[in-house]
Design a protein that fits this description.
The radius of gyration is 25 Å and the shape is globular. Helices cover 75% and strands 1% of the residues. The protein is mainly α. Residues 78-97 and 316-326 have low confidence and may be disordered. A two-stranded antiparallel sheet has the order 1-2.
Length: 459
Amino acid sequence: MADHLEPRIEDQISAWRAYVSRPEAIDGRDVDELEDHLRGQIDRLEASGLDGDEAFLVAVKRLGGLDDLSREFAREHSERLWKQLMVPGEPRAPRSGGGLPLAVELSIGAGLAIQIPALFGIRFGDDGAFYARFAALLVLPFLATYFLVRRRASVPTLAVVAVPFLLAAVVMAVYPFAPDGATLVLAATHVAVALWIVTGIAYIDGRVRSTRARMDFIRFTGEWVVYLALIALGGGVLVALTMGVFSAIGLDAEWFVEQFMVPCGVAGAVVVAALLVEAKQSVIENIAPVLTKLFTPLFTLLLLAFIVAGLLQGNLVDGGEIEAFGQRDLLILFDIVLVVVVGLLLYALSAREPLAPPSWFDRLQLLMVGAALVVDIMVLVAMIGRIAEWGASPNKLASLGLNVILLANLVGAAWLQLRFAMRRAPFERLERWQTGFLPVYLAWAAIVVVAFPPLFAFA
């Protein structure tokens, strides 16, 4: 840990120290200890790519979890961040790989990449099979590159990230998928999941064994989805205005919107959303606690309602006829619900202060996990019934495998959440259990992409 930082950062630390050293505050020795923690946090954050000003604000914010005075200081001074991010001021120390310029360049690159097939007569929307195969491979490399450059990744990390992308490209190019076949849809969705997790390796700079690093990627994923949704809403308004303006002057802009505006916008937004998360994450109040406290009760009620309805419905499989709650569409729907619940749980864990004692919200999460566990068992019963009655198919087996993984995840999560709520296990064990499933999801996605198509004759 460096004893002396940049003069500007030393001035900010002096201001912070003066704030928490007020006569009615805390003892000087405690201030020394807090300052030592603060400097250590700044060193680690600068090493991860933040500049000095941002590292100071993030460090003070995180220190707020240890001390009320630091939290109050963070509230009073966090508005500086937006000025530092958006308003040019005094020269700052260069950050790893640049920020906004790099993101803009790569977002433009992603937009151009999505248009490359048009040079060969493959138009977006006209050949769904081609874009199903290669959409993730055309866009996600730019996001991975953004993180690799920002982190100044080592050669081993570059290799660990690049090799899966190359293998995925070979598989998706060589396999003779039937157009609109089930194996093509499964491979397309699972290759996107697998490559997203591989992109996470770039995000955490290759620290795949670190529980904290994995949790940081989970937090990033949740906030990235939120920002991407906000960008999509704004993009929808822009598309509507574009169509309306050109229509008013007698021109049809539909072809431009469908072929260029939407695909390029979506591809570029993938990188821009990452830039926004990187700029804001953990500095001003994180949106994760707000979202998790809003949606955890709602999803808990949804799961409980499904359990009650399922019990009133009776057997999920009856005399060879799949009842309402065993129908294919509902099984897929509740698979999605279970995935969202697990994602919500992970997002909530990523937003939680690790050292805080169990609270009512942790008990509510335990109820949600228990309800999700019951729903998963009900869906598994219905799914096994469908396979027994109608035979195996790629969709059924892929869904069955996912549900088995979710079951194992939820069983462990329920047990550890219960022990944590009873103060018999540390939060770290629950966190480690959940992040430990990321390689499992990656492995299952790879199996579906590589093994399922030939097993089912690429149908």
